[in-house]
Amino acid sequence: MRRDLGPQTWLFPMPVLIVGTYDENRVPNVMTAAWGGIRDTKQIAVCIDPGHKTADNLRRAGCFTVGAGTAETLAACDYVGLVSGRDVPDKLARAGWHAHPGTHVDAPVVEELPFVLECRLVSFDPKTGCAVGDIVNVTADERILDAGGKIDAEKLDPIVFDPVRHVYRKLGRVAGTAFADGKKFK
């Protein structure tokens, strides 16, 4: 039997995304975005409250980075979502993180995040806070790559947000093969 739970902002999994921008003084700022994902072939969408410093930064600069939260960086990922860059301008340092400029966009790449997308802003909706960016580069630490140079999810060890229980979870083991297991129904 099924139960109606009403309209909720629940979807599984919800990636833990860290959005990076520079402020007007080129100070790196990062925040945790609760909602976001791939929007189109080479685009990402992230929801950022229009009142956040990050929203101001990305509208001014026209670019941003998006890193994936990992089990190793969980506490720092949570922290940068708890405090505002307006109140704590050195929150990156307080999180124990370091940043360098992206190679394809003028936005910070957090060194401790092993997987980061470099993005150019396509649009920002001031009503919904939805920022859409073209993904112009993916940068990955070699320690999360397999022998063929592709990202290994187990080595990355990404975390996801459970919006029902307000906890972070680790992704599990492989459950099947995409574009193959469904062929049995053809």
Describe this structure in words.
- The chain has one domain (14-185): Electron Transport, Fmn-binding Protein, Chain A (Pnp Oxidase, Chain A), CATH 2.30.110.
- 14% of the residues lie in helices and 35% in strands.
- The protein has helices spanning 53-61, 74-82, 91-94, 153-156, and strands spanning 14-15, 17-22, 28-33, 36-40, 43-47, 63-68, 99-101, 108-110, 115-124, 130-140, 159-162, 167-170.
- A hairpin with a 2-residue loop joins strand 4 and strand 5.
- The radius of gyration is 17 Å and the shape is globular.
Concise description?
The chain is mainly beta and 186 residues long. It contains four helices and twelve strands.
Write the layout of secondary structure elements.
Blueprint: E1 14-15, E2 17-22, E3 28-33, E4 36-40, E5 43-47, H1 53-61, E6 63-68, H2 74-82, H3 91-94, E7 99-101, E8 108-110, E9 115-124, E10 130-140, H4 153-156, E11 159-162, E12 167-170
Antiparallel strand pairs: 1-11, 2-3, 2-6, 4-5, 5-10, 6-9, 7-8, 9-10, 11-12
